[in-house]
């Protein structure tokens, strides 16, 4: 019998969030649930450098970050890396004034509340 192939393991994923504990938790979830070891970035500028240096399939992106917020970074990713699927993850969408629908219209692949991230992120990535 041939070993089963897990297509999610082949996904190159970048987690962008300014909160170190959140990045670490997402990394653990992705490794345990899907066998994906993501690359981690704590700022929009670091993320852009990583994206320019290496191709990624999927980015998870926090909306509320210092220096460059997630809305600005989403726009830059859409302009410069249009094939990357961007999954917005945020505690609240009130802080930006943008609804999940508007974020989808601006190019997000999916929008998830941090409260629902474990179940929904794993489901979305399994479907890719």
CATH architecture: 3-Layer(aba) Sandwich
CATH homology group:
Response regulator
Q: What is the helix content?
A: 40-55%
Given as residue ranges, the uncertain stretches (5+ residues, pLDDT < 50) are 1-5
Could you state the order of secondary-structure elements as H and E? Answer: EHEHEHEHEH
Question: Proportion of β residues?
Answer: 15-25%
Q: At the first level of CATH, what is the class?
A: Alpha Beta
- What's the number of helices? 5
Q: What separation lies between the terminal Cα atoms?
A: 25 Å
Arithmetic mean pLDDT: 88
Total number of strands? 5
Number of domains: 1
**Structural classification:** alpha/beta
Radius of gyration, CA atoms, in whole angstroms: 14 Å
Strand arrangement across the biggest beta sheet: 2-1-3-4-5
Oligomer: single chain
Write structural notes for this entry.
Mean pLDDT is about 90; it is low at about 1-5. The protein is an alpha/beta fold and about 130 residues long. The chain has one domain (about 10-125): Rossmann fold (3-Layer(aba) Sandwich). The protein has helices at about 20-35, 45-55, 70-80, 100-105, 115-125, and strands spanning about 15, 40, 60, 85-90, 110-115. It is globular and about 35 Å long. The protein has a 5-stranded parallel sheet, with helices on both faces. The longest helix has 15 residues, at about 20-35. Helix 3 (about 70-80) links the parallel strand 3 (about 60) and strand 4 (about 85-90). It contains 5 helices and 5 strands.
């Amino acid at each position: 019998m041939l070993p089963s192939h897990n297509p999610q393991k082949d996904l190159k994923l970048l987690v962008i969030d300014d909160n170190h504990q959140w990045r670490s938790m997402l990394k653990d979830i992705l490794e345990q649930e899907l066998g994906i070891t993501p690359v981690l970035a704590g700022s929009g500028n670091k993320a852009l450098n990583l994206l320019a240096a290496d191709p990624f399939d999927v980015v998870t992106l926090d909306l509320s970050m210092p220096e460059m917020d997630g809305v600005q970074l989403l726009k830059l990713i859409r302009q410069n890396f249009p094939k990357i699927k961007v999954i917005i993850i945020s505690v609240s969408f009130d802080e930006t004034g943008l609804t999940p629908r508007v974020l989808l219209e601006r190019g997000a692949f999916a929008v998830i509340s941090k409260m629902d991230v474990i179940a929904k992120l794993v489901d979305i990535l399994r479907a890719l």
